[in-house]
């Protein structure tokens, strides 16, 4: 009991020690750098472009392309006798092809993503340190759960695929998870910034409402209350900066997220079709719960998460 409680306390202390954007996003961008998505170094608590990691990301990208192309050849020609079921072979081939598109779009937008992360880091300085610890708890819990589900579902397919193909599928789905995580977590941080601005506006409104009527005059605001005007200008500037970052996010993550959504829809369609075929053999229900159905639920959850966070941020912008 003592060891367990001390471990929990250490985890809690480590989460509470997160006080800025760099500390919050460091695990994610480190994994993204390892996968070749973001070539960066941390200099003076800033994410800066790194040429050595650019070379590394290029090598990793070429390796991805060659390996996935090799797997496409393997499943359609070399292991054709193993994957005799046409639908299954077509399903995996589509996944690999869109995996190639995903890696290409992620490689092409790596500089934009890095610049976006740095701009988000600058804007997030408006948040108090306790907000980051709260964000860390929510984000790490969500992402740990999503990683566990992704790893479990992919590992379950170990007996259904050859090892090279299983590795290819795992790389693709982990890349989807990583890009989704980067996108949703940056949206999450921007949503917290917008909420901070909205809360500040509510406080200013309460101050105005609670003041005497003559304090609402324009002359009073221009001469007697410069602090209030300065606060409003600061909030307006911060809101404009966040709006600019949101537009940058659309351009930086637009192609990868669109590719991910298409890939998820294809995977949902194939898995749902296979599930419906399995439970309707001869008009009888043969298997109520199957791995295909769990894949459908998992991918639907990913799509819902992206849409929910995006809509939540839009609500804060209004």
Description:
The chain is mainly alpha-helical. It is 81% helix and 2% strand. It has helices at residues 2-16, 21-34, 51-78, 86-108, 110-123, 129-156, 163-210, 218-224, 226-278, 291-317, and strands spanning 40-42, 47-49. Helix 2 (21-34) packs antiparallel against helix 7 (163-210) and helix 5 (110-123) packs across helix 9 (226-278). The chain is globular, with a radius of gyration of 24 Å. The model is unreliable at 1-5 and 212-216 (pLDDT under 50). Keywords: Cell membrane, Membrane, Receptor, Transducer, Transmembrane, Transmembrane helix.
Notable characteristics:
10 helices; Gustatory receptor; 2 strands; 318 residues; membrane; receptor; mainly alpha; transmembrane helix; two-stranded antiparallel sheet; cell membrane
Helicity, in percent?
over 70%
Q: What fraction of residues sit in β-strands?
A: under 5%
Oligomer: single chain
Q: What is the β-strand count?
A: 2
Q: Topology as H/E string?
A: HHEEHHHHHHHH
| Rg calc | 24 Å
State the distance separating the first and last CA atoms.
48 Å
What composes the largest sheet? 2 strands, antiparallel
Given the helix and strand composition, which structural class is it? Answer: mainly alpha
Mean pLDDT: 80
Q: Order of strands across the biggest sheet?
A: 1-2
Stretches with pLDDT under 50, minimum 5 residues: 1-5, 212-216
Cα shape: globular
